[in-house]
């Protein structure tokens, strides 16, 4: 498997948010796989996001919630061997749409006006 290449654009979101990097904050999860993405939405914006990582012995590490909770909770679970290959989103003053696509063709979308999404993060990886 090739090493993923991350191409972030400028920082997105509302005032008061802070940049985060779970892998830098929790170096013990470097060899863990991304197992689940939890996120919270209300009416038209993404309020918070959290990642769950699975270790080599099946142990689960749940990262911090980035942002806040809201009315609607959603989660996107990845199967063993499944990887996120594209993340797109739309943002003005706040992130209001996200779409995740995996190497197995599975996708999950949330937010408003999904047809008008612009890429805010793209993960480039060998899809074989």
From TrEMBL:
The UniProt transmembrane annotation reads none
Give every Jacalin-type lectin domain span: 6-128
List the SUPFAM superfamilies hit by this protein, alphabetically.
Answer: Mannose-binding lectins (SSF51101)
Which ranges are annotated Polar residues under compositional bias?
A: 1-12
Q: Where is this region: Disordered?
A: 1-20
Q: Which InterPro entries match?
A: Jacalin-like_lectin_dom, Jacalin-like_lectin_dom_sf
An example Pfam family from this entry, by short name, is: Jacalin
In its UniProt entry, what is this protein called? Answer: Jacalin-type lectin domain-containing protein
